[in-house]
Amino acid sequence: MSAAASSRGGGGLEELTLGHGLRLEDLVDRDALQEVCKSFFALFGIPVRIYAQDGALLADAVQDQAVCQYVQSLREGRAACGATVSAVKSADPGAALEATHPCFTGAVYRIIGIDYDGRRLGRVIVGPFLPADLKEMPRSLLAVDPAIDPVKAKELLPKMPRVRPETVTRIGRHLQSVLDLILFSGHRALLTSQMHLASVKESYRELQEQNSKLSESYERLKELDRLKSNFLATVSHELRTPLTSILGYSEMLAEGIGGELQGEQLEFVQTIREKGEQLLALIKSLLDQSKLESGTMSFKMANVALGEVLDQVGSTLLPSAKKKGVLLEIAVAPRLPTIRGDAERLRQIFLNLAENAVKFTPTGGSVRLIAATDSSGSEPEDDVGYVLFASRPTSVIVRVEDAGIGIPEAERAKVFDAFYQVDGSSTREHGGTGLGLSIVKRLVEMHGGTITVDQNREQRTPVVDAQGRRMPGAVFTVRFPLS
Q1: What is the Cα–Cα distance from 396 to 31, expressed in whole angstroms?
Q2: What pLDDT is recorded for position 457?
Q3: Which residue from 413, 385, 379 is spatially nearest to 399, judged by alpha carbons?
Q4: Residue 6's pLDDT band (cuts 50, 70, 90)
Q5: Which one of 3.20.20.70, 3.30.700.30, 3.40.50.300, 3.30.565.10 gives the CATH number of domain 302-481?
Q6: How large is the average pLDDT for residues 404-415?
Q7: How far apart are the first and last CA of the chain?
């Protein structure tokens, strides 16, 4: 029944309540009807057929009677049998739900209507069978065909089952009861299926509506993001021009070109210059972020020796590291292969990482930049002079270690998001915009590499800050594939 019910897609409440076009085969499973027919035939030995309202045979359990087989072997007898079967199939049981149709053999058929919820859905035909009170062979049988053998017909007719009228009535009512139960179960299954289907359709409609809204929101956000990038690029460019003038004039004032400055005057000018350089660095970061997002950043690709790049980074940062009391170490494996990249952008990558490392490392700590080859996907060892020797190195990796506050595990997946900071409070100890690592990640990926935040560094000698907090240290690993 469920198979038949699920094969139709619902048509509204009217169809669900049998108000529009439902058929017997929509409510019942043909295998179930076949089992009903077989069980009745096994009990009573009387043929049973179940037809839909349009005359389609849905199930049957029949066995041709010997006399019927004999009559159908005769030309006129075969025509008479066909006419009788057609008349029986089209007979209307009427409001009483039962009708009897005679056969020229003396047998009869019982036609039982199948009604459900006030609708005629089909009919059951029981027979042919002989009435129990039939005593003599009917003349209509002998007259059906000139070639009929009366002796043989008389011999075969009694082999047809005999049934009393009241027995046929009980069989018919029992069939109706069984079919009513099957129809009720089938109707309930159909209602459940159709209601579920209607629910799924409604959910799908709502999902499509939500998806449409999400698509519109996504397109709107893309447009806003584009406008934001354009705004940042425009504002950054417009700020850079006057800021360059401010830095230039402050530098000339500090050098005494406009007249010798005294005491606090020189200190104020130096502060202006220092803060201006910080602002210029921020503007450069905004411009880089905008170029990366718009895909307009240019690269000058060549074979680059990472050792030279790291030495340049070390030279740039050494004064600020010494001023803070931080030891800066650079370890580059011998015969380190060159990689394909833009030397200036690679220097920007490691300068940003090393600047962060120095910024977050307290006095007395160390920052290490370690470069080596790798052929197994592992990282270089902590030993400064360690080299991963492999017959065919597949990548060059650079690890940047600090002795700072470290990065909590829950924050490691977010540190490369633009404008994200682990400590985003207004009272945070270390400044910054949160753009540096986002730019670094994009630059690394545009070189075909990857960058990861590893487990916090295990310090050989514990480092503590001014407040007495133990510093676990952070570790960034950059990997560039070798062609």
Answers
A1: 70
A2: 61
A3: 379
A4: very low
A5: 3.30.565.10
A6: 81
A7: 64
pLDDT band at 421 (very low <50, low <70, confident <90, very high): low
The model's pLDDT over 242-257, given as tens digits with 9 standing for 90+, comes to 878 888 888 888 888 8
Residue with tokens 């062609």: 483
- Selected from 3.65.10.10, 1.10.287.130, 1.10.260.40, 1.10.150.20, the CATH number assigned to the domain covering 214-294 reads 1.10.287.130
Based on C-alpha coordinates, what's the Rg of the chain?
47
pLDDT at position 160 is 87
Kindly report the backbone phi and psi dihedral angles of residue 293, in degrees, each rounded to the nearest multiple of 5, phi listed first: -70, -35
* Domain map (residue ranges) of the chain: 2-205, 214-294, 302-481
If you write DSSP's letter for every residue of 64-119 in order, what string do you get? Answer: --HHHHHHHTSHHHHHHHHHHHHHHHH---TTTTEEEEE-TTS-EEEEEEEEETTE
Among 124, 128, 129, 127, smallest CA distance to 58 is for 124
Q: Tell me the residue type at 226.
A: R
